[in-house]
Amino acid sequence: LPEVFLKAQPVLQALEDAGFEAYFVGGCVRDLLLDRHIHDVDIATSAYPEEVKKTFAKSIDTGIQHGTVTVLYGGEAYEITTFRTESGYQDFRRPDKVTFVQNLEEDLKRRDFTINTLAMNLSGEIVDLFDGLGDLQKKVIKAVGVAEDRFHEDALRMMRAVRFMSQLNFALEEKTEAAIADNHVLLSKISVERIREELVKLALGPNSQEAFDKFIDTGLSGECPGLAGQEEKLRVFTQLKGRITDEAVFWALLALIINLPVNKVTSFMRTWKNSNAMGQEAKAIVTAFDQVTMGQVSNWDLFVFGQNALTKALEAAALLGQPVSSQSLLDRYAALPIKDKGELAVDGGWLIKKGVKPSPALGDLLDRALKGVVLGQVANDEESLAAFLDL
Ligand code: ATP
Ligand code: MG
């Protein structure tokens, strides 16, 4: 067993010793069986939250109304959730009510896909009530029970389905796919942030090309901000020349693929509730991309792009199969005398000491000095710069 499980075994043991049932459940068991990296383990138990808290010295009430207690043990934090069912879902996204139950089966039934219903006990025995093992073997994402009903309960599951396709390199089971196609409009009930999180995971997954295909085919893409009616353009994502490895590169690609003008990138990023930093980065990449793919890139342009936007723009160009002489641009960038404004040997204070009055002209002089150094017209030292600026 991987280290994460071994470390967590005493937690299960403590619950069992206190007379409760406890299992590893969900994604961690799936990923164990797929031999994928496991980032955290989730634990399900018959103990009520209060009983979980009594069993351990340190705990935090993270989501006690949903039955989740975070237990701190051996320097790790474990989410321990009481077996529960959900009901209601009037709003297609959150259950109106969760009910604690005493058996594991009821708990597993409420989960989204068969491969996410697997549980494992302390001795490593797998509980498989919905043929999750069979579907792992067949490599399919299949809703638990009636797919249609499950997507009505929680429309985010439709995005999770295509996201798992991408991450796990699985196919969508037929009925599950049909139910997504029939119910894609329900995605509009889900907050943009939650859709975004799934879409980014989809984009960065190893099987993103097929997942994008389904994301488009089923109509899900049309429910996303700024993507309605862009189906044909979005198909470009199914023909990329490699794998997207960076979130900002994904957003830049998306903007480029739907032909968004540079000055619309930040507002587009905002409609997706991205951070300002992510918005700026995507815009910088699109800007650099436009220039490198048009040719005519000066050393000053390279300096203004900076290393990050430049390398990511080249990555985007490579993924889109655009011919760009990346290596020569990177070599030219590497050879720039300075890479950052802060490396300039002089600053405003120095100019003032040289007798320049604080004024807009001072800013212009600094700009000239910076450009001169970046373009290799003057050495980056005080004496050379004083002569260059006639001071
Ligand atoms: P990962 O953490 O790798 O993204 P995961 O399967 O662990 O994947 P989580 O969101 O961490 O996904 O959820 C843990 C488990 O909770 C899932 O495996 C699944 O059993 C259940 N689950 C999560 N979200 C939903 C949902 N929207 N509907 C039903 N069950 C869900
Ligand atoms: Mg998880």
Automatic annotation (TrEMBL):
Question: What SUPFAM superfamilies does its record include?
Answer: Nucleotidyltransferase, Poly A polymerase C-terminal region-like
Residues covered by the Poly A polymerase head domain: 22-141
Q: Does the keyword Nucleotidyltransferase apply?
A: yes
Q: Which reaction does it catalyse?
A: a tRNA precursor + 2 CTP + ATP = a tRNA with a 3' CCA end + 3 diphosphate; a tRNA with a 3' CCA end + 2 CTP + ATP = a tRNA with a 3' CCACCA end + 3 diphosphate
MF GO annotations: ATP binding; CCA tRNA nucleotidyltransferase activity; CCACCA tRNA nucleotidyltransferase activity; magnesium ion binding; tRNA binding
Keywords, alphabetical: ATP-binding, Magnesium, Metal-binding, Nucleotide-binding, Nucleotidyltransferase, RNA repair, RNA-binding, Transferase, tRNA processing
> Binding positions for ATP?
G27, R30, R111, D154, R157, R160, R163
CDD domains per record: NT_ClassII-CCAase
Q: List, for all copies, the residue spans of the domain called CCA-adding enzyme C-terminal.
A: 244-388
- What is the purpose of this protein? Catalyzes the addition and repair of the essential 3'-terminal CCA sequence in tRNAs without using a nucleic acid template. Adds these three nucleotides in the order of C, C, and A to the tRNA nucleotide-73, using CTP and ATP as substrates and producing inorganic pyrophosphate. tRNA 3'-terminal CCA addition is required both for tRNA processing and repair. Also involved in tRNA surveillance by mediating tandem CCA addition to generate a CCACCA at the 3' terminus of unstable tRNAs. While stable tRNAs receive only 3'-terminal CCA, unstable tRNAs are marked with CCACCA and rapidly degraded.
- Oligomeric and partner information: Homodimer.
| Record protein name field | CCA-adding enzyme
